[in-house]
Amino acid sequence: FHLAGIRLAPKEKLDIPVLFMPAEMKIYKAVVVIHVMRENGENWPYEVTAESNTDLNRNITVAENGETQGILWIYPINGTPEAPQQKSVVIRCQARQRLEQRVELLLFGVRPDATALPDAGNSAVVDTNVGESSDTPEVTDGSSATLEFLYELQYQSDEIRSQLESLVGVQLVEKEWDIESRIVTLIFNVVFAPSKPMRNEATIVIQCAAGGLWKFPLVFIATEPEVDDVINIEAVGLNKESIVGFKLTSQTR
């Protein structure tokens, strides 16, 4: 869009609305350019010379006499579409036990024209021709590409992170890519080894290098542990104390 003729008083603020409504799961890029000129039409006395600052010169417009006619502010905008949040996956395990569970996550609307992988988190590469051995597998539109993903387990708070981080492990073990439906299936192996009863939540966040963000909530439930032992105390007589001893071992320092 283009806005013109907006007058700003000294130190006045201007809100610029930016609307993002993605049609596909891909990266969208745009630039917001703000061009400011004096209301009276006069130029600033600053003249561009060969020794002038390069970054400064890039952000000005010059009149015929070499003076500064306008000042530019340039704001790049990167839009990442986010899929609607999916239903929660429940991971349930008895306290003091260890559970390994395969979790299958479906990524809808994935584009096959992946680009460079962002610099963060864990990565997974999904070949577009599953089952074939090829460094540059061919996709249906004739381009050569692989689908690259980042995945990360995020927590709602630092307190939940401290409770879950050492008890939970997530690893990508299998990937499938259906070109016709544009659905990528990622299968994760989730390990949960709770030490005490609890109920906490986390989110697997998956990002595709070609664009798109998917979030899958996980609910970790640890139920009551089994009884360790039954202590029987036999009475030696009425109004007389009976004592039995047992040992407790700490699992940590």
Structure write-up:
This protein has 253 residues and is mostly beta strands. Among the domains are: 28-79, no CATH class; 81-111 and 148-225, Immunoglobulin-like. It is 5% helix and 41% strand. It has 2 helices and 12 strands, in the order E-E-H-E-E-E-E-E-E-H-E-E-E-E. The strands form 3 sheets. A 5-stranded mixed beta sheet has the order 5-12-11-8-7. Strands 1, 2, 3 and 4 form a 4-stranded antiparallel beta sheet that branches. A hairpin with a 4-residue loop joins strand 9 and strand 10 (183-192). It is elongated, with a radius of gyration of 30 Å. Mean pLDDT is 81; it is low at 114-121 and 127-145.
List keywords for this structure.
mainly beta; Immunoglobulin-like; 4-stranded antiparallel beta sheet; 2 helices; elongated; Ig_CFAP47; CFA47 protein
